[in-house]
Design a protein that fits this description.
Belongs to the metallo-dependent hydrolases superfamily. Hydantoinase/dihydropyrimidinase family. By secondary structure, this protein is of the alpha/beta class. It is 32% helix and 20% strand. Strands 1, 2, 3, 4, 5, 15, 16, 17 and 18 form a nine-stranded mixed sheet that branches. The chain has a seven-stranded parallel sheet with strand order 6-9-10-11-12-13-14. Strands 7-8 form a two-stranded antiparallel ribbon. The longest helix is centred in the middle third of the chain and has 18 residues, at 259-276. The protein is globular and about 95 Å long.
């Protein structure tokens, strides 16, 4: 599909003012670059691009080739392409040309604890583009249980989008109306996944009965069931225990929801999904306990996807014990960041295929919002950053260290997400016909992360001071150069909603398995009633 600008968008491209990073007003954050919704930089007006001489990397193959882009679509991937003079040429010699990242797990403009996460669908997406992510999938929260009202609210939030996005839908209750609306979401709205929270008692948490009904409905619709796996009842008890012990700071958050509660809920969700015989996606896997349950299920042949997030791979829980509340509270997320032994196990599982793709759970609150819980960790809004940092950190942690290959990097940051959510090869590939969402990564360049220079609106960064090797130097989204020479060139309203069809590859063979199960029952048994 060609990419076209509306008249209003073209006017905004011509009229808004560009503020370089060193002079721009910090209207939305005390530290960090920050920018308003008028736009930032000027998007490349060229509809034709030629990326020359780079190593083009897909999930299963790499080659030195040129990539020709026209009207937002990849037209050709071949060595030594020749094009006309009206084409913008980007030299990628000695660099990797890869599909833009797809973040499967974000929460932009999310309402929680009577506040809202500070990155909206413009600032969060702009930060993503600066870090090499060109699409994300956000979670729609129902309004008073209504999926329709929830989607309408998020459609309004997403009008300022500057890159492509999709939606998952959260389920908080189940009745005939919700069942009907789930079908509408799948068949009319392009949503092919539903999330069930087993935590956050009294707010988002569902019980086993509701989960079972949801799993059955997901199966019938060809939609992927997703779970936040922590035992919410036990977490609630753990929180009360910490408060009774006088542990009210951020460390109480981690202590109240230990790994065994994540493991228990993961095991329960896996077994119920197995009982229904439908695929299951476990979000933000943070512990060995949960990881072992996923490994066991996958070994048995069950369709279970495990998603680590970059904070779980890259950080440990020591920050939660920092004596400074502002520092400690920025690490509060759920499930909690664990001891380093868990992070190393997650890295190993990602490298050997037990875990399939990397998300972020990007949901940021500034230090003022985090301070709502200064006397009670239960009131600290949960969430950390990562949408801008993910691509760099996964490269440095996993590729630079030799744990995964360059092709594996493409798989875990882009292609597998596209396959799971049924948008491959439109997304997640550099092949003729795919959307021109492309990054150019220089493996010899270095990066440094800090809140002064990141593009999120939050005033803290959980990766503060982190340095590494491998930097995204160019991001191309929809055929437009949006990140180059450390400058963002984005416009609100230029992003597209990507509809995702049901029945991804995870559903292949489900019908045959059901038929095999039924034939194995040897039931019902025909019995003769006694005539006496």
């Amino acid at each position: 599909m060609a990419y076209h600008f509306s008249l209003s968008l073209l006017l905004s491209l011509l009229l808004f003012t560009y503020f370089p990073p060193n002079s721009q007003s910090n209207q939305f954050c005390e530290a960090g670059i920050g920018y308003d919704e008028v736009g930032y930089g000027i998007s490349s007006s060229s509809t034709k691009l030629l990326i020359k001489g780079g190593t083009v990397v897909n999930a299963h193959h790499q080659e030195i080739a040129d990539v020709y882009v026209k009207d937002g679509i990849i037209v050709a991937v071949k060595p030594n392409l020749r094009v006309g003079d009206d084409v913008k040429v980007i030299d990628a010699t000695g660099k990797f040309v890869m599909p833009g990242g797809i973040d499967p797990h974000t929460h932009l403009a999310m309402e929680a604890l009577n506040t809202e996460s500070v990155d909206d669908f413009f600032s969060g997406q702009a930060a993503a583009l600066a870090g090499g992510t060109t699409m994300h999938i956000d979670f729609v929260i129902p309004v008073n249980g209504s999926l329709i009202a929830g989607l309408e609210a998020y459609e309004k939030k997403a009008k300022k989008s500057c890159m492509d996005y999709g939606f998952h839908m959260v389920i908080t209750k189940f009745d005939d109306i919700v069942s009907r609306d789930m079908e509408i979401m799948v068949k009319e709205k392009g949503i092919n996944s539903f999330k069930f929270f087993l935590a956050y008692k009294g707010v988002l948490m569902v019980n086993d009965e509701l989960l079972l009904e949801g799993l059955k409905r997901c199966k019938s619709l060809g939609a992927l069931a997703m779970v936040h796996a922590e035992n919410g009842d036990a977490v609630f008890e753990g929180q009360k225990r910490m408060i009774q012990l006088g542990i009210t700071g951020p460390e109480g958050h981690a202590l109240s929801r230990p790994p065994l509660l994540e493991g228990e809920a993961t095991a329960r969700a896996i077994r119920l999904a197995g009982f229904v015989n439908t695929p299951l996606y476990v979000v933000h896997v943070m512990s060995i306990d949960a990881l072992e349950e996923i490994a066991k299920a996958r070994k048995s042949g069950q369709r279970v996807v495990g998603e680590p997030v970059v904070s779980g791979l890259a950080l440990d829980d020591s920050g939660l014990w920092d004596s400074d509340f502002t520092t400690a509270s920025k690490y509060v997320m759920s499930p909690p960041i664990r001891a380093s032994v868990h992070g190393k196990a997650l890295q190993d599982a990602l490298s050997n295929g037990v875990l399939q793709l990397v998300g972020t759970d990007h949901c940021v609150f500034n230090s003022t919002q985090k301070a709502f819980g200064i006397d009670d960790f239960r009131k600290i809004p949960n969430g950390v950053n990562g949408i801008e940092e993910r691509m760099h950190l996964v490269w440095d942690l996993m590729v630079e260290s030799g744990q995964i290959s360059v092709t594996d990097y493409v798989r875990v940051t882009s292609t597998e997400c596209a396959r799971i959510f049924n948008i491959y090869p439109r997304k997640g590939a550099i092949i003729a016909g795919s959307d021109a969402d492309i990054i150019i990564l220089n493996p010899n360049s270095t990066f440094e992360i800090n809140a002064r220079s990141h593009h999120s609106r939050t005033d803290t960064n959980v990766y503060e001071g982190r340095r590494g090797k491998g930097k995204v130097e160019v991001t191309i989204a929809g055929g437009r150069v949006v990140w180059e020479n450390n400058e963002l060139k984005v416009v609100p309203g230029s992003g597209k909603y990507i509809e995702m069809a049901p029945f991804s590859y995870l559903f292949s063979g489900i019908d045959r398995a059901d038929a095999s199960y039924l034939s194995s029952l040897n039931a019902p048994v025909k019995r003769f009633k006694s005539t006496t």
